[in-house]
Amino acid sequence: MSANLKYLSLGILVFQTTSLVLTMRYSRTLKEEGPRYLSSTAVVVAELLKIMACILLVYKDSKCSLRALNRVLHDEILNKPMETLKLAIPSGIYTLQNNLLYVALSNLDAATYQVTYQLKILTTALFSVSMLSKKLGVYQWLSLVILMTGVAFVQVTIQDKYIFLSLSWFQTLIYFVWRIWFYCLLKPANVIHHN
Asked: Could you state, in order of their start, the residue ranges of all structural domains in the chain?
């Protein structure tokens, strides 16, 4: 991959993540007459849009044939009930996490939320090292230390919002459980190393 494409992808990802958080924060704290929208409705609509996008991609891969699309969906979802059930727990946790995302953004400013939410990277890395015996390089450890320092600075400056920060810690824990569950269920058993 060329360096230009890497930086373009990084720029788009930063823009998308930042704009998502700012838009959600604005929509949750907007001072208008009447009730706000339900966060659960926003989560369901977002998931329905993702499902529709996935079905369109499978349809395209099936050479735009409805019969082939129906066969693929039937074979992959209905004919493999245990595989489908394995995804039920992570998808439920993911739904809970997305609902908590709206709660956190309703109570925290966008910058605090964004930095605290990045703790998912730290917890995933630490548990990958401790539970899955993954090795991290020097630059990866340095990046984690810098991330942890940034989170510590943000949390020290806003001690009066301690209750809402603990919600972000809970959300990070949910994210970690979801990632490990997903990893353990979908990877072959010989990938996980036991000491």
From this structure: 109-195
